[in-house]
Write a structure and sequence with these properties.
Elements: H1 2-12, E1 25-31, E2 34-43, E3 48-54, E4 59-65, H2 70-80
Antiparallel strand pairs: 1-2, 2-3, 3-4
């Protein structure tokens, strides 16, 4: 999981700045004060992608938005992604 995630980070190459809600970013994600994995939101050839790990389940997941709307994709990620 971690190696595959790192490959995605290297391929799409975004810096850990800002917020996935407003643009490209690579950081940890958490619920409350507890970190559960890493998340990258990055542009791709068409649209954007969110790649994230979940340390609790040892999985890597990807969400792709061909329209490239960070705010809407971030909301969809929060609803369908890592939150319990």
């Amino acid at each position: 999981m971690d190696a595959a995630y790192q490959e995605a980070v290297e391929r799409y190459g975004v810096e850990p700045t800002g917020s996935c809600e407003s643009g490209p970013n690579e950081t940890t994600w958490s619920i409350g004060d507890e970190s559960f994995g890493r998340v990258q939101c990055a542009p791709q050839q068409v649209g954007i992608r969110f790649d994230w790990t979940d340390d609790r389940l040892s999985i890597l997941s990807t969400l792709i938005d061909l329209d490239g709307e960070y705010e809407l994709t971030h909301q969809a990620w929060l609803e369908a992604g890592p939150n319990p």
